[in-house]
Specification:
With 173 residues, the chain is an alpha+beta fold. The chain contains six helices and four strands.
Length: 173
């Protein structure tokens, strides 16, 4: 009698652990680490308006007028590399700088009266493209949360040195 009860308990325990393992495996399959990292990169890029302005002003030559016109691009590059270098490939960081994405966001923030914060960020996997996501978000003013702009774009992720990194970013303001 005891051995039969023991077998039932052992079988129940084995089934329980198998169910837990199946749930864990399914959850792991549904999680998308590339998408999570893409969301982080987009969030950081869209949130960088006041930080970029401060970095640009700090990198400006002494005696120059404050603002983006007198920007030292090496200083801005160093700032962005420190903020997003681990999340972007070097080529992507160079393209972000060449396309002036951070300064475009900062200029929009200046027109809107201050720092912008992204809201309602959505990423959707692009059909037929591996690790490519379309994104959209509203940019709200930090002071009163009024809509300043709607942004959209794409981000493509690659695995480099065992980590997911942005390989290409487009941004439509």
């Amino acid at each position: 009698m005891k051995s039969e009860s023991f077998r039932k308990q052992a079988l129940s325990l084995v089934l329980f652990f198998a169910a837990v393992a199946a749930v864990f495996a399914l959850t792991r399959l549904r999680s998308d680490p590339a998408k999570k990292q893409a969301e982080f990169v987009v969030q950081q890029l869209l949130s960088c308006s006041s930080a970029v302005e401060q970095a640009v002003d700090a990198a400006a030559p002494a005696g120059s007028e404050p603002g983006l016109a007198a920007a030292d691009t090496d200083g801005l590059y160093t700032f962005l590399q420190a903020q997003l270098g681990d999340a972007m490939t070097a080529d992507c960081l160079n393209k972000v700088m060449a396309n002036r994405l951070p300064t475009r966001i900062t200029a929009l923030a200046g027109q809107s009266g201050g720092k912008l914060t992204p809201a309602d960020l959505t990423l959707k996997k692009r059909a037929g493209a591996e690790n490519c996501y379309d994104f959209s978000a509203a940019l709200l003013t930090a002071t009163d949360s009024t809509a300043a702009a709607q942004v959209s774009g794409t981000i493509t992720m690659v695995k480099e040195d065992g980590r997911w990194k942005a390989a290409a970013i487009t941004l439509n303001l």
